[in-house]
Amino acid sequence: MNSDVLVVGSANADLVVAVDRRPAGGETVLGGDTVLSPGGKGANTAVAAGRLGADVALLGAVGDDPYGRLLLDSLRAAGVDTGLVRTSERPTGIAYITVTPDGENSILVSPGANSSLEPADVDAVFDGVEVMVASLEVPLPTVEHAVARAAERGVKVLLNLSPAAKLSPETLAKLDVLLVNEHEAAWLTGPGADFRELLELGPRAAVVTLGAAGAVVVEPDGTTEVESPKVEAVDTTGAGDAFAGALAASLADGADLVSAAKRAVRVAAFSVTRPGAQPSYPTAADLGE
Ligand code: ATP
Fold first, then answer.
1. What quaternary structure, including any partners, is listed in this protein's UniProt entry (predicted)?
2. d(CA 201, CA 178)
């Protein structure tokens, strides 16, 4: 018997350094102390769902190294089933992140083990799964294969189009929910386009996250604006992944999409009030549920 929620996606160690300015080619610049934390869109999404109490597994890959162990520990501490996290011969993925005083992040990702996730890895993993949620820091053919297999098995399919990548029309048509932020929505349908145009690409529904403004749920019979609670934002890293994990957890519990999005904005808003990605995600008790 598998978990209710299956996350297909990346696990990365985030190495974050504060810098006054970024080095130009051939230049050396001294920065602050390195802060190491567990990250990657797949692992973040799974941890967000796990902390809310969902029965969730991550399908992914890490290296046989200390960063891989850090990620597995963080997943397990959140109650995530790691039985489908493969140990690859390649090193654990790493995101090298520099942050300048204006708060701007600049990120270089070395995918490492995440690149070794193959289409064959997603066969035979869908028994008992209610909702699959995938994101795109793992190879596109693997994600497209996972979407096809999940749809065949009657699993609800949620795709977080992050980072933005060109999906085939066949894959888009198999999505129950396409999850994008404003930039990804504009990338798909052109700047200023009506969010309803997202459905013309094939998914049965779409959710567009709008940062502090919350989210919009687009369904064939109408569009619903979901306001975010007003909070003092400290660090928005991983807010989109918190939203994705919470949305999947609620859908697996049988919530309709608008109710799931209402809970997801509360979860994501809570996450921006604390530093980091995974450490900032709330439990149901944190939300007062
Ligand atoms: P990120 O790349 O930072 O993970 P994103 O660009 O994928 O995020 P956003 O639309 O910026 O996605 O944020 C996702 C969700 O997080 C929003 O729908 C909202 O619920 C919450 N959120 C983000 N920023 C804020 C904020 N300043 N105040 C309250 N909620 C926020």
1. Homodimer.
2. 10
- The yes-or-no answer on residue 20 being catalytic is no
Nearest-angstrom CA–CA distance, 211 and 207:
12
Q: In degrees, to the nearest 5, what angle opens at C-alpha 100 toward C-alphas 99 and 101?
A: 125
pLDDT in tens, 126-181: 989 999 999 999 999 999 999 999 999 999 999 999 999 999 999 999 999 999 99
Domains for the chain: give ranges and CATH numbers. Answer: 5-11+39-92+113-280 (3.40.1190.20)
Whether the CB-CB separation of 281 and 51 falls below 8 Å is answered with yes
Contact 115, 142 (CB under 8 A): no
> Residue 12: beta bridge partners?
39, 93
- Residues 95 and 108: beta-carbon distance below 8 Å: yes
Q: Which atom of ligand 1 is nearest to the CA of 183?
A: 6
If pLDDT is split at 50, 70 and 90, which confidence band does 265 have? very high
CA–CA dist 121, 53 (Å, integer): 26
- Round to whole Å and give the CA distance between 153 and 192: 36
Query: From the alpha carbon of 239, which atom of ligand 1 is closest?
Result: 4
Q: Find the catalytic residue in 55, 121, 176, 241.
A: 241
| Residue 268 CB–ligand 1 contact under 6 Å | yes
Annotated binding site for ATP: 181, 209-214, 240-241
pLDDT at 263 over 80: yes
Angle at the Cα of 15 from the Cα atoms of 37 and 96, rounded to 5 degrees: 140
- In the structure, how many helices (H) and strands (E) does the chain have? 7, 13
Which residue's structure tokens are 């397990």? 76
> Which atom of ligand 1 sits closest to the CA of residue 160?
7
In this predicted model, which residue has the larger pLDDT, 125 or 267?
Answer: 267
Is the Cβ atom of 272 under 6 angstroms away from ligand 1? yes
Strand pairing of 215-219 and 222-226? antiparallel
